[in-house]
Amino acid sequence: MITFKGVHKWFKDLHVLNDINLHVNQGEVLVVCGPSGSGKSTLIRTINKLEPINQGTLIVDGMDLSDSKTDINQLRAEIGFVFQQFNLYPHLSVTRNIALAPIKIRRMSKDEAESQAAALLERVGLIEKRNAYPTQLSGGQQQRVAIARALAMKPRIMLFDEPTSALDPEMIGEVLLVMKDLAQSGMTMIVVTHEMGFASEVSDRVVFMDEGQILEEAAPDEFFKNPKHERAQQFLKEVLSPMH
Amino acid sequence: MLKYQFDWSVVTSGKYFEWLLSGLYTTIQLSLVAIVFSFLLGLVIAMMRMSNAKPVRWFAHGYLEFFRNTPLLVQIFFWYFGSYKILPTVINDWLNKTNFEFGAAVIALTIYTSAFIAEDIRSGVRSIPKEQLEAARSSGFSYVRSMQYIILPQAVRITIPPLINQFLNLTKNSSLAMTIGVMELTYQARQVESYTFKGFEAFTAATLVYVVLSIIITLMVTYYDKVVLSPMKAR
Q1: Please, which pLDDT band fits residue B226 given cuts at 50, 70 and 90?
Q2: Among A7, A111, A146, A182, which residue's CB has the most CB atoms within a 10 Å radius?
Q3: Contact A82, A142 (CB under 8 A)
Q4: Is the dihedral of CA B150, B155, B161, B162 positive or negative?
Q5: What are B133-155's pLDDT values in tens digits?
Q6: CB B150 to CB A133 under 8 A?
């Protein structure tokens, strides 16, 4: 589904992605973790070309991202992206936020798109907020709407860039629950997160990054019980410590 | 002692009242047409100003500097006395057939005001966080459609208060059109003065009408800000 081969990226002199080789299968749930500044957000943002790569090959859903013939807008329509800061459209109601892209890009009728929006809101438990505006919702609610907005395009891949990092602790659970439900439905997901509970319970594989490199790649049980790399051990000690 | 005999009936009824009324009608017509066109043109210039293509950006920049920094009166004279030498025949024919004074005034007011509007819209667009564009692009919207559906609707909402100020200025500036013979409110007030020597009454009436027009526009901004803008603002 997604294949990185020898991918590099630089921000000026900073080597943010250093020889990334990674393959994600259809239906797989991959968690990417690592200290801040490790390049994990950049990694996930290259998959829908929010960040272009400088070197190497990146194939997503059969399309080569460095091929100029690849229609990037068409590819992006197949990939749902959930941001740390939700980024809902503040001038549109919750329903319009979800229905806009299906209407304008998928050419869905307004009625169909709005009933689909209602179904998705039902799924994320926010049907009663369908006429609200984003600023009237809590952070957790906004993020659930953002997930519904991404799902409205019937994506083949869902990318999550630290979806719970901007949330108050009591709202993290409701968002993770929606993501867990999505993972169990067979969606291909890549999740950048510090939520190690989610990683161990839901993911199929954990990738640990530091300084632009993938240092470790393992099944969650293996990764948490028996981290091989010294920096992964250090990282786990920090995020799992009760003082954190 | 004051020897002037006030006679307000001159401007409250009869022939001269009708002159003023028709002047008001022309002022509103002129302003509305120029408001619509200057907004659309301002939108286009703002987009050009933010374009990735350097020549387009430079052209827009030159346009802004040129039209913002020359007097409106000179621009009105230019379009009235000088434009037929450079405009295409089609437009000249149309202008002559309809009402050349009115057309020249619309062109001058539109172009002059569009330069200010373009800058207001541009700063509105720049105030929208770049994450909004990222969210739109990541859903599969092209740059142009992201602008159309997500960025510009927000930018225009934010820009409405300064835009209304520009519309207010445009309405007041439309009085300069009298210099090329457009029979708008100021022109008619002047006419009433010429025929009756009641200059005080005539121009007081005209002034009051401008004040009322401005108050109406200002009330619209306040209402807009309360009803449309505030639900959008972050809490």
Answers
A1: confident
A2: A146
A3: no
A4: negative
A5: 999 999 999 988 999 899 988 88
A6: no
Query: Strand ranges (DSSP E) for chain A?
Result: 2-11, 14-24, 29-33, 55-60, 63-64, 79-82, 157-161, 188-192, 205-210, 213-218
Tell me the fold of B9-234: MetI-like fold (1.10.3720)
Distance from CA of B140 to the nearest CA of A (A): 4
The phi, psi pair for A22, rounded to 5°, reads -160, 140
Amino acid letter for position B153: P
Inter-chain CB proximity B149 and A100 less than 8 Å: yes
Query: B155: closest CA among B189, B177, B129, B179?
Result: B129
Structure tokens at B150: 């997500």
Domains in chain B: boundaries: 9-234
DSSP label of A11 = E
pLDDT (tens digit per residue) in A60-103: 999 999 888 889 999 999 999 999 999 999 999 999 999 999 99
Apex A11 CA angle, A10 and A14, nearest 5: 75
CA B112-B173-B219 angle, 5° bins:
105
The answer to whether the CB atoms of A83 and B233 lie below 8 A apart is no
Prediction ipTM score: 0.90
* Interface check B143 vs A, CB under 8 A: no
Contact predicate A149/A157, CB 8 Å:
no
User: Which pLDDT belongs to residue B235?
Assistant: 38
